[in-house]
Specification:
The complex is a heterotrimer. In chain A, strands 6-7-8-3-9-10 form a 6-stranded mixed β-sheet, with helices on both faces. In chain A, strands 2-1-4-5 form a 4-stranded antiparallel β-sheet, with helices on one face. By secondary structure, chain A is α/β, with parallel strands linked by helices. Chain A contains 10 helices and 10 strands. In chain B, a hairpin with a 2-residue loop joins β1 and β2. In chain B, α1 crosses α6, α2 packs parallel to α4 and α6 crosses α8. Chain B is 70% helix and 2% strand. By secondary structure, chain B is mainly alpha-helical. Chain B has 11 helices and 2 strands; from the N terminus they run ααααββααααααα. Chain B has a two-stranded antiparallel sheet with strand order 1-2. By secondary structure, chain C is mainly α. Chain C has one domain. Chain C has a two-stranded antiparallel sheet with strand order 1-2. The chains are: A alpha/beta, B mainly alpha, C mainly alpha. The interface between B and C is large, with 42 and 45 residues.
Chain lengths: 247, 286, 298
């Protein structure tokens, strides 16, 4: 059994009176890619925001390589190795591409130099170093956001709907890179709407609905299912399969 | 006319420093600080204490006062604004109003209402193409320009400056990129203090030292920052020069007492028709 | 001593009315009026000039002042309709307020500038015996305060009042209700303006002499403190807040006796420092005030 690099138990969180996350258990094994899918409003974004520390966890535990993250501020979590790419507003629009990249590694404490191996995965950014990030196309911004999270190689990379708004060509390009990054040893937790594409490169699929985990199964099996939308309705036949966390 | 224009440039340079602090604070902390005038007043009196009372030359008293003001600003933030950090712009504005009262009147309490002046050597003014430039104005231009260049360098070529711009651009993302916001906030206030310290000394050199010296400039400084676009340092610089020059030139056509009307009208017009000013950048307000 | 209390109560009355105006514009309507001092001055001068130059009696002068300030505020709101950001709106009103003060100071032909206007008459000043007069004035002030309070309560409970609060809570949602929203802002600000005009008239009548130095930022600090102490949005709370604030601050006048070594400049400096500290302290520790906002249960 490979160890879990990221483990979440009994997580509750929310913005106002009620909880949006109602007790979530998720484990990300070292070196794997786990994709979380679910209908809108299921709490997917809230989930990664809470993991990143932008929203306080009301209950539950978040552990990175066994060390509890609950009391750490977002910058400290990032420095501990938990990188996060938000869905939108994920680059500093008024700063240039180069400045975005610089900032991404300047405040990481140890290992402040840029990880060249990872950055070499994004050659197209080299042409835009002097351009303001706000002036890039949507696809280029997404790549920049992705690259920034990797400038200091993290242990875990969390991506919130990375393919949102991308053309099919760019989307497969993006997932291709996710796979490459993963092969460099980065464990990946992804939230996705474009389930099929994402699941193709994932090891495990988790279905989130109504703030709870509805299903957790190997990605290959889920892909093989004829009607993916049954997942969104909480198809209980999935629950019957053993909730094998490791693929 | 050329003389008026020159005077306008000097006034503009003086105003650039507080305008920069207003714009930096607005960018990083998201609120308009109405205490900038009073902060300049306090800094000027600090320099006065060092200069006239302890006998330091102004060349030494000014930077010392600026640094002291920087430290004082950090302290003020801890006590006054930090507890109100989450509360939104209006609360912070009202707090800064109260802070302005306190600072200005501490100065009044310590030094009374009568005008004071720095101890400086007298020097003959230059004449250049019909324009009289006195010693203080030359110092103002050089010190002000130097300060702006240093600030530019800081904001664009250092990690701290980048961090400040990042926080102004997108505070949540800055957190996710490892930037500790308390540290950035402390730096912002320290720089604010230095800018206001220098600004206060320059005002004290230009006019006299009296308790309302800083707040007299408040409206003009805000007009400058708004004209340039709140959040844009380049805008603050350009805005300040424009407001300075236009205000001075306006005295040729409207009664001098209404000089303050120029920035007032500018504020109203800009906020209604083009709130982001000349160089303003849209930012994420969360 | 009684005399002092009566006179202070009268001042509390019109200060409370001013605070009610701010409470209505900001607390209920979400429109921060940083130009309050300037509009207050406008009301005071309008009333004074109507009485001194146009020979109006106090009743019509007050109405005139209310109309003038109401209209000016309405115009300001109209011109700034597009400025929906709270802090930008505050800065614009600050600018307008400053402009008004500037006019008061410089348009000597009208306002006698720094010399001020003296000899402002009082209602029934000649008919009532001098030693009874303060009771009359107190009664009148209380009546006006109560009237303003009752009026605002009516407005708050009306459909217009609900619209006002909707505009404050979320102007995106309120905007889907159409152009009513924009007009609502104008009306809110204008109504508040009229009340400021009333307070200004009372100021003129009470002091019988006005000059620009009476209209400093201290005025708006008092008003803010009253609104915050009372719980922003709550009318009754605002009145009580005004009372509490005024008592605390006027009480500080007695510092003069307690600390004889300070000169008058220093004493007034200390009093203003206390105001500043009080304002910040209220914001930090009692942001919701000491009382609660009225909420319709339905």
């Amino acid at each position: 059994m490979s160890a879990n690099v990221l483990s979440v138990t009994g997580l509750h969180a929310g913005y106002g009176a009620g909880d949006i996350l109602k007790g979530i258990d998720v484990a990300l094994p070292q070196g794997r890619i786990v994709t979380v899918i679910g209908p809108n409003g299921s709490g997917k974004s809230t989930f990664v925001k809470t993991l990143a520390g932008l929203l306080p966890a009301r209950q539950g535990r978040i552990e990175l390589e066994g060390a509890a993250l609950n009391d750490l501020s977002p910058p400290r979590r990032v420095r501990a190795g938990l990188a996060y790419v938000p869905q939108e507003y994920n680059v500093f629009r008024n700063l240039t591409v180069l400045e975005n990249l610089k900032i991404a590694c300047e405040f990481m404490g140890r290992g402040r130099r840029m990880d060249d191996e990872v950055v070499s995965l994004f050659p197209e950014l080299n042409a835009f170093h002097g351009k303001k990030a706000g002036n890039l196309s949507g696809g280029q911004r997404q790549m920049l956001a992705f690259a920034c999270a990797l400038t200091v190689r993290p242990k875990v990379l969390m991506l919130d709907e990375p393919s949102a708004g991308l053309s099919p060509l760019l989307m497969s390009e993006l997932f291709d890179r996710v796979k490459k990054v993963n092969s460099l040893g980065v464990s990946v937790l992804m939230i996705e709407q474009n389930a099929v594409e994402a699941l193709r490169i994932s090891d495990t699929c988790i279905v989130l609905a109504g703030g709870r985990v509805r299903a957790c199964a190997p990605a290959g099996e889920v892909l093989g299912m004829k009607e993916l939308n049954s997942l969104y309705l909480g198809d209980t036949s999935l629950d019957e399969k053993a909730q094998r966390v490791d693929a | 006319m050329l003389q008026t224009f020159f005077n306008g440039i000097v006034t503009g340079v003086i105003m650039t420093l507080p305008a920069l602090s207003v714009t930096l604070l607005f960018g990083v902390l998201k609120f308009p600080n109405f205490a900038v005038g009073a902060m300049m007043t306090v800094a000027a009196y600090l320099a006065f204490a060092l200069n006239a009372q302890l006998g330091w030359p102004l060349l030494a008293a000014a930077p010392a006062a600026a640094v002291l003001m920087g430290i004082l600003c950090i302290g003020i933030d801890q006590v006054t604004f930090k507890p109100l950090r989450e509360r939104g712009g209006i609360t912070l504005m009202v707090a800064s109003l109260g802070l302005g009262f306190i600072l200005e009147n501490v100065a009044r309490f310590a030094y009374g209402n009568s005008a004071r002046g720095f101890v400086m050597e007298l020097a003959r003014p230059f004449r250049f193409a019909d324009v009289r430039m006195n010693h203080e104005q030359m110092i103002t231009l050089s010190a002000g320009t130097a300060a702006m260049l240093i600030l530019w360098f800081l904001l664009n070529k250092t990690p701290t400056g980048r961090a400040m711009r990042a926080v102004a651009d997108n505070p949540a993302l800055a957190l996710a990129r490892g930037i500790e916001s308390p540290r950035v906030i402390r730096w912002t206030w320290f720089i604010t203090g230095i800018l206001l310290g220098l600004g206060g000394v320059l005002i004290g050199m230009d006019r006299a030292l009296e308790p309302p010296m800083g707040s007299n400039y408040l409206i003009s400084v805000f007009a400058a920052a708004i004209l340039g676009g709140l959040g844009s340092p380049l805008g603050a610089f350009v805005g300040a020069l424009l407001i300075g020059v236009v205000s001075e030139l306006s005295t040729l056509v409207i009664p001098p007492n209404y000089r303050i009307g120029v920035p007032l009208v500018a504020i109203a017009i800009i906020l209604v028709f083009r709130p982001q000013g000349l160089f303003g950048q849209p930012y994420i307000r969360k | 001593m009684i005399s002092f209390l009566i006179l202070m109560s009268i001042v509390v009355c019109f200060s409370a009315i001013l605070a009610l105006a701010l409470n209505f514009q900001w607390g209920q309507g979400g429109m921060v009026n940083f130009g309050l001092t300037g509009f207050y001055a406008l009301g005071a001068y309008a009333a004074a000039l109507l009485m001194l130059k146009a020979g109006a009696n106090t009743f019509f002068a007050a109405l005139g002042a209310m109309a003038v300030v109401g209209v000016v505020c309405g115009l300001v709101a109209l011109i700034t309709l597009r400025v929906t950001e709270e802090d930008y709106f505050a800065i614009v009103t600050l600018g307008v307020g400053e402009m008004l003060r500037l006019l008061a100071l410089n348009e000597d032909w009208l306002t006698k500038g720094a010399l001020g206007l003296a000899g402002i008459p009082r209602p029934f000043g000649d008919s009532i015996a001098p030693d009874q007069y303060q009771y009359f004035l107190l009664g009148l002030s209380l009546a006006l305060l109560f009237g303003t309070y009752a009026f605002l309560r009516l407005v708050t409970r009306s459909p217009f009042g609900r619209l006002v609060r909707a505009v404050r809570e979320d102007d995106v949602v309120a905007a889907t209700l159409g152009k009513n929203v924009l007009w609502a802002r104008v009306r809110i600000f204008a109504i508040g303006g009229a009340i400021i005009g009333l307070a200004g008239s009372m100021h003129s009548i009470y002091y019988q002499y006005i000059d620009p130095t009476q209209f400093t930022n201290i005025v708006i600090a008092y008003a803010f403190m009253a609104v915050i102490a009372g719980g922003r949005g709550a009318h009754l709370g605002t009145i009580l807040g005004a009372g509490v604030v005024m008592v605390l601050l006027e009480g500080s006048r007695f510092l003069k006796d307690a600390i004889p070594r300070l000169d008058s400049d220093q004493l007034s400096a200390i009093r203003i420092i206390i105001i500043g500290v009080g304002l910040i302290a209220l914001l930090i520790w009692k942001p919701k005030g000491f009382f609660q906002e009225y909420r319709l249960k339905a």
